[in-house]
Amino acid sequence: MDQLLENFSLDLFVKLTVLFLLLIFLMRRFAWKPILTALQDREESIQGALDAAEDAKKEMENLQADNEKLIKEARAERETLLKEAREIKAKMIEDAKGEAKAEAEKMIAQAQSAIEAERKSAIADLKSQVASLSVDIAEKVVKSELSNKDKQLGLVEEMLGQATLN
Amino acid sequence: MKVISKTITSLSLILLFSLTAFAKGDKKDGQNSHGDPINTQEEINEYIQHHVKDSHDFHLFSYFSEGEEHHVGFPLPVILWGENGLAAFMSSAFHHDDDGKEIVEKGGSNFVRLHGKIYELNAGATEVSFDEAHHPTNASTPIDLSITKSVFGILLLGLLMLLWFGGLAKQYKKKPIPTGFGRVLEPLVLYVRDEIAKPNIGPKYRKYTGYLMTVFFFIWISNLLGLLPFGFNVTGQLAITASLAIFTFIIYMVSGNGHFWSHQLWMPGVPYLLRPVLAIIELAGTLIIKPFSLAVRLFANITAGHIVLMSLIAIGITMQEQMHPVGSTILSFVLSLFIMLIELLVAFLQAYIFTMLSALFIGMAVEEPEHH
């Protein structure tokens, strides 16, 4: 304790206390205050930037999720569209086929009926020609029979030969 | 630990410089050790004793050649407030006399220096007379306002701190990230704030950080300054450590809140009979033990470090007879290198401990009661 007291100098103590007070005051005023404020500001701005980055990241994730959803939806829609188109195509082909068949059948039927009509008219025509021919022959036969028996016979024969050619 | 190792590496240059400076002194002294009155054990002991105390002049080393002593150093101003008012002169006026023989006449008063202290002779006295305990009987002590070695050290240190940290503060005005030396200082500032002030004080840390930083860097830089071969021993002065401790004491006494004082004086949750006893113990701790331990811990650590370091360096001289000069020099070099490294660590550690404990004491005083 004596040794300690011997080491203690009151003059130095007072001088140092004054100097140290001055130093604390000056350091606070010119160094610590601006330094601490600057550091705090910087930390806050860094924190702010980090938060903003985090937010942006989340937003990006949301956007990406949205995008994926959209893509999925679009894909599904395309799928359905394609399916529908395929169905329509098949139906169209089917329809066209049916229609064509019906048309063809109709045409065939028409043709057949036309042919039938033609045939009928031809037969009728033939019948009437045969009738008039027969009448003509009969007339000529009658005529020649009336004039010359031989000639009438020759004529009938010729006429008959002609008729078979027709 | 990272900070400490970083510190050690960054200061290895200083270490190298200081050791070579010491070694030079050794060599010079070692050359004429025959009949040399300086390199005796008593002289070395005296030198060490002298070094750890404050002094009125800046004494680097002494050597003996051509029959006379030479002192290397430079004088510092002596400013005294005595019976005849202010007197100022350079300490060289004493001619390195420390036994009260050299009388300096200034401002109508006669001053002598005796064991590092300046006395003013009573009017009419022309010589100091001593009592049996070797205390002067016909002299008084004037108020000593001199720029002593420690005061010079503090001024230098304050200037350095203002320059460095003021520069750092200026850098922040221009850009958010400092460059150059500021980059070294910034992590230290952050370290004190985040590792010492914040965890120990709590949410009110900002108010006290300025004081804690000043104390931390003051102690650390002055500890390191003390390791340089210039002979500074600022934090090894009890007056200085006591002053620092009293600052902490005043701060935590003033900022103590009701919660703190109620725990000091009338501890809740303890049987009533025990409360006065606890109050005495708590008050003794707060008023005496805490500041006393703060002051003495720092003073004793730094002074001991200086004495051990200088003693180990002195081995190079005192052991020359037992060992070869080369052997003693190597031994002293290795030992002092080792202790120097430890002292570098201690320099940081003591600054840390002082600041940490100050923060802790302040934190205890401003702590808010927990709400259950």
TrEMBL record, chain A:
Matching entries from PANTHER family are given as: ATP SYNTHASE SUBUNIT B, ATP SYNTHASE SUBUNIT B', CHLOROPLASTIC
Q: What do we know about how this protein assembles, alone or with others?
A: F-type ATPases have 2 components, F(1) - the catalytic core - and F(0) - the membrane proton channel. F(1) has five subunits: alpha(3), beta(3), gamma(1), delta(1), epsilon(1). F(0) has four main subunits: a(1), b(2) and c(10-14). The alpha and beta chains form an alternating ring which encloses part of the gamma chain. F(1) is attached to F(0) by a central stalk formed by the gamma and epsilon chains, while a peripheral stalk is formed by the delta and b chains.
A GO molecular-function annotation: proton-transporting ATP synthase activity, rotational mechanism
Organism for this UniProt entry: Dokdonia pacifica
Locations listed in the record = Cell membrane; Endomembrane system
Q: Which residues form a coiled coil?
A: 36-121
> Membrane-spanning regions, if any?
12-32
Keyword Signal part of the UniProt annotation: no
In Swiss-Prot or TrEMBL terms, this protein is called ATP synthase subunit b
Which terms in the GO cellular component ontology are assigned? endomembrane system; plasma membrane; proton-transporting ATP synthase complex
Topological type in the membrane: Single-pass membrane protein
TrEMBL record, chain B:
Keywords (A to Z) from UniProt: ATP synthesis, Cell membrane, CF(0), Hydrogen ion transport, Ion transport, Membrane, Signal, Transmembrane, Transmembrane helix, Transport
Q: Which Pfam families match?
A: ATP-synt_A
Report which superkingdom the organism of origin falls in: Bacteria
Query: Which InterPro entries does this entry report, sorted A to Z?
Result: ATP_synth_F0_asu (IPR000568), ATP_synth_F0_asu_AS (IPR023011), ATP_synth_F0_asu_bact/mt (IPR045083), F0_ATP_A_sf (IPR035908)
State the compartments where it is located: Cell membrane; Membrane
| Signal peptide residue numbers | 1-23
Q: Any keyword Signal?
A: yes
Q: Which GO terms describe its molecular function?
A: proton-transporting ATP synthase activity, rotational mechanism
One term under GO cellular component: plasma membrane
Its transmembrane ranges are 150-169, 208-232, 238-260, 272-292, 298-318, 330-354
Where is coiled-coil annotated?
A: none
Please state the protein's primary subcellular location.
membrane
Membrane-topology descriptor = Multi-pass membrane protein
Gene3D superfamilies in the record, alphabetically? ATP synthase, F0 complex, subunit A
Q: What does this protein do?
A: Key component of the proton channel; it plays a direct role in the translocation of protons across the membrane.
What family is it from?
Belongs to the ATPase A chain family.
According to UniProt, the name of this protein is: ATP synthase subunit a
Protein source organism: Dokdonia pacifica
- What's the encoding gene here? atpB
